[in-house]
Amino acid sequence: MKFKQPLALVMAGALMCVSLSACSKDENGADGAAKPADAITSTASGSETIKGLSGMNTERKQVSYMIGMDIAKSLKEIEQEIDVDMLTKGMRDQMADKPLVSEAQHTQIREAFSIKLQAHAEKVAAELPKKNLEAGKAFLAKNKGAPGVITTASGLQYQVLRQGSGPKPGATDIVKVNYKGTLLDGQVFDSSYERNEPIEFPLNEVIPGWSEGVALMGTGAKFKFWIPSELAYGEQGPQGIGPNATLVFEVELLETKPRPAGEAPQMPAGQ
């Protein structure tokens, strides 16, 4: 199980609950009385009550269910630590101003749980480099047999998605590309497509996997690359990528030109 910022997530869920509950109370009146839903009915604040949801025929019920969903999402990463029945009881007791634990006990439990989660997070972080390295090696060993995949002497793997008719870049040339970078699980960590803006950079000032791979492309080509960690960031993988991660890129080579003397490079965010 992953742990990122569980206590922050818990607090975010609680704050969301309080905030939305207050809004619901203001919209429905001081006593929080619910409004019937004959259709999709807009309130003065712009909220809506949706007809046809089983067991949720009032705005109050729908908003309450929505808040429950938000809290559950915020707790997803620590769901194995949660007793849902006790979670519900804690909410009911607190809302009734009759909690079973004192503020001091509440703080004690929170601090002990925080220490436990921190220890777990540190353990996961320590194991991550080895885990990523092994996963990458296993993937590349299998992927090299896939149709159309070529493996170079360095271990870089690529597949030609579209051939290019233009010249190939030299080692110090500036290339203009569109690209998308993902982890092996498909998570996107960088994309010029999302920014709707191709980017230019000297080919010899990026990770080795890019320098080698893009040099194989003719201008106008589109390739897919699988870059082992030693040709990417190794153990120094930045946030969003992680240590020893194998990277996947789709790259379109749009333009190639010599690099003018003294020109400062503009580097891709994921490079």
**Major sheet:** 7 strands, antiparallel
CATH class of the largest domain reads Alpha Beta
CATH architecture of the largest domain: Roll
Distance between the termini: 29 Å
CATH fold description of the largest domain: Chitinase A, domain 3
Average pLDDT, to the nearest integer? 83
Structural class: alpha+beta
How many strand elements?
Answer: 9
Sketch the topology as an H/E string, one letter per element: HEEHHHEEEEHEHEE
Radius of gyration: 27 Å
Explain what this protein looks like in three dimensions.
The chain folds into two domains: 6-100, no CATH class; 146-257, Chitinase A, domain 3 (Roll). The strands form two sheets. Strands 3, 4, 5, 6, 7, 8 and 9 form a seven-stranded antiparallel sheet that branches. The two termini are 29 Å apart. With 271 residues, the chain is of the alpha+beta class. It contains six helices and nine strands, in the order H-E-E-H-H-H-E-E-E-E-H-E-H-E-E. The relative contact order is 0.11. Helices cover 38% and strands 17% of the residues. The chain is elongated and about 75 Å long. Helix 1 packs antiparallel against helix 2.
